[in-house]
Amino acid sequence: MSWDINKLWEQDKAHFVHPFTDFSVFQEEGCDIITESNGEYVFDGKGNKYLDGIAGLWCVNIGHGRKEMGQVMAEQAEKMAYYSPFNNLSNVPATQLAAKLAELAPSNLNHVFYSCGGSVANDTTIRIVHYYFNQLGKQDKKIIISRNNGYHGTTYVSATLTGIESNNWGFDTAHQFVHHVKEANCYRRPAGMTEAEYCDYLVEDFENSISELGGEEKVAAFIAEPIMGAGGVLVAPEGYHRRMYEVCKKYGMLFISDEVVTAFGRLGHFFASEDVFGVQPDIINCAKGLTSGYIPLGATLLSDEIYEVISKPQREGAVFSTGFTYSGHPVACAAALKNIEIMEREGICQNVRDVGPYLEQQLATLKDLPIVGDVRGSHFMMCIESVADKDTKELLPLEANVGKRIAEQCQKRGLIVRPIAHLNVLSPPLIWTRETVDQVVGILRQSILATVESLIEDGLYQPQA
């Protein structure tokens, strides 16, 4: 198939409203249009080939262009593309996938509510949490605690849960029942504080916030990513999640684990909450890697205890009145089943456990570069933080746009990484090998050095003596 790439570029600018668009440059620069993908590579309309360092957007876990995925989706579409999930009707793939997710998830998460993506899964979860406490006669128990710099989506409630301040500039939020506490940022913890002391500090802040907000009578749940994604790939101190869970149980709160990014192998397990962090949440939300991004699908996994409450009729003639036209879409669920089958058959989680530590080690070698302040993350979820001064951790000026500069230098050399202000994130397909890691780290080193030169030339960075 051939395209007039210049015509597409103009049409894209004229008609496609992109997520997170920088309108200060969009009309001039437009977008690079990706036209093909295969394995760990993507190709643009000008014939350039790139290593995909971000797996689309944290999601193409099994790699691009898997024929099995296309085939199973086509077969399901021919057999039955869609039928209503309402009115006591179901379909085969949705039923089979729900059973499979219950098998893979922590032991008491046996009930699945389907949506179309991570934002909607998180939004739906809050509606279910409020309904759950209403059913228990606790109508005042509504407050949800999230974290500064946590990312949970951009639908109305999920955007409110998101604690990245710039995400909501100019937008309204449902702030009346959402409260944010300090994020766990070990790199920027208070000076002189050990990680263990920092963990104590964060847990104490959390418990104090619960008390100030009305305690057990008012606070319903805590939502957290096992590792914070778009907020900077922040890894909490050891034991943090377990202790936050214990505080939740002390105050009769639900613990919601937002595994939209971390589930389906990114940390080497199908779900990270229990296997990596030792926590059995009351609710897990997932999307992205559930289908490896081949088709939209989200899921909210509910505990037996929650289901027992919400599955009882609230009043005569009433139903559990939440859901979507595409809940449990047959084609999406068939894709998810095939995706999980591929992951199990090819040992993709094991590959992440084998190659992930090597990726961490090799990326850490970049710390010798003058602007690299921190390299952090776990397995196939990593971040490089650039700074002006390594000792003080002072940031470069905003106009330096250092994350974008590094990403552009990487793209010139055949690698796509994600810029987020002064950060660069890697969340690659889970099929990377050690050889790929070596290639990527080499490109990053060259690109960061080229960025340093450009910053000096532009008078935006002065090397330390």
List keywords for this structure.
single chain; 465 residues; alpha/beta; four-stranded mixed beta sheet; 15% strand; pyridoxal phosphate binding; transaminase activity
Helix-strand blueprint:
Layout: H1 5-15, H2 26-29, E1 34-38, E2 41-44, E3 49-52, H3 55-58, H4 67-80, H5 92-104, E4 109-115, H6 118-135, E5 143-147, H7 156-161, E6 178-181, H8 195-212, E7 219-224, H9 240-250, E8 254-258, H10 272-275, E9 283-286, E10 298-303, H11 304-310, H12 330-346, H13 348-364, E11 372-378, E12 381-386, H14 402-412, E13 415-416, E14 418-420, E15 423-426, H15 434-457
Parallel strand pairs: 3-13, 5-6, 5-7, 7-8, 8-9
Antiparallel strand pairs: 1-2, 2-3, 4-10, 9-10, 11-12, 12-15, 14-15
Family: Belongs to the class-III pyridoxal-phosphate-dependent aminotransferase family.
Cofactor: pyridoxal 5'-phosphate
InterPro entries: Aminotrans_3 (IPR005814), Aminotrans_3_PPA_site (IPR049704), PyrdxlP-dep_Trfase (IPR015424), PyrdxlP-dep_Trfase_major (IPR015421), PyrdxlP-dep_Trfase_small (IPR015422)
Describe the protein's architecture and organization:
The protein is α/β, with parallel strands linked by helices. The protein is 38% helix and 15% strand. The strands form 3 sheets. The chain has a 7-stranded mixed beta sheet, with helices on both faces. A 4-stranded mixed beta sheet has the order 1-2-3-13. A 4-stranded antiparallel beta sheet has the order 11-12-15-14, covered by helices on one side. β7 (219-224), α9 and β8 (254-258) form a beta-alpha-beta unit. α4 runs antiparallel to α12 and α8 (195-212) packs parallel to α9. The radius of gyration is 23 Å and the shape is globular. It starts with a helix and ends in an 8-residue tail after the last helix. The model has no long low-confidence stretch (mean pLDDT 97).
